[in-house]
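Hi V.,

You were right to ask for the full record rather than a summary. Here it is.
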Amino acid sequence: MLNPGMWSQNHLEAEDYGFPAEEERRSRPRLRLGVTITVTALGFLLAAATALLFVRLADFAVHDLPARAPTGWISAAAPVLPAGEAPPSAAPEALAGSAASR
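Predicted structure:
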């Protein structure tokens, strides 16, 4: 036995397959660790910024956007009124009068 797990000589072991010899690389564990920590921290910051912007966008949608869509838009966007409360008047003549005053 030549090497553990090797029962015969590998005749392709010295073959370079047309590629040049591999260049020596310097081992830089500090640089690799620093880059890994930096990229990880940037990933956490990006995730936190995404969550905060989503919360701000949802807050804007709930509090600052109009509560009711104008007539003719999707009716599912209209708010659900509590039981016994009358909806505001949306008579066609009231809408025509407000459009004429613009």
